[in-house]
Design a protein that fits this description.
It holds the Pfam family PG_binding_1. This is Peptidoglycan-binding protein. α2 packs across α4. The protein has four helices and no strands. The protein is an all-alpha fold. The chain is globular. It starts with a helix and ends with a helix.
Length: 116
Amino acid sequence: MNKLWKYGAITGIMFTMLVLDVSSALSAPKPKYSRCKNSQEYCLRRGDRGRLVDDLIGGLICVGIDNVNSEKKDDPDYAVFTEKVENAVKEFQKTANIKPDGIARPATIKAIQYGC
């Protein structure tokens, strides 16, 4: 009887862990990224969300653009390219002599990575 109880408790814990893992995976938002015109590369802009946006925010912080600290999320799946991020991208683009339009095209992303 004791062995049966132990087996049932372990099975119950494993099932609970599985359900929690599956439910968290199902509740994570689906990433959304914009594509550049005539390209397979991403051009991150306002409204995009996901890990690439989180990486962009981290890069902006790394190069000294501090006004996006509040946009950094504990879970990178929840990072959103907000107006604040757009303004930070523009600020960086001005310092890097890139057209300051607030869209993180490959040239902007590479410049951020280089500066970090």
